[in-house]
Task: structure prediction
Amino acid sequence: MYIIADDEVVQECSKSLDSTCRLDTFSSAEAAIDTMGNDPADIVLLDLDLAGTDAVAAMRGMKELLPDVLVIAGRNDVASVVSAIEAGAYDYLIKSPSSPPCWS
Result:
């Protein structure tokens, strides 16, 4: 599994995942795509709100290398959801700012 996020909360939550899962974290989509060519993951969790990145365009590039990209985002607007799903997202998950961190 690849987690592509520059969000500190998401990065911290990834540390609590079961150690039987191979997990690589990236703070940029470009770094993940570079790695994917040589070491593909079974699934990708992609933060739609990556700074300085068109995450939807990055997802289109990833879809050529693997089938399942889950999108996470801090926004719940119809345009973002439709854009991600049309680009091939397997699912769209909302990060809730009111939720407590997963490690608390």
About this structure: The mean pLDDT is 80. The first strand starts at residue 2 and ends at 4. The first helix runs from residue 8 to 14. The chain has one domain: 2-94.
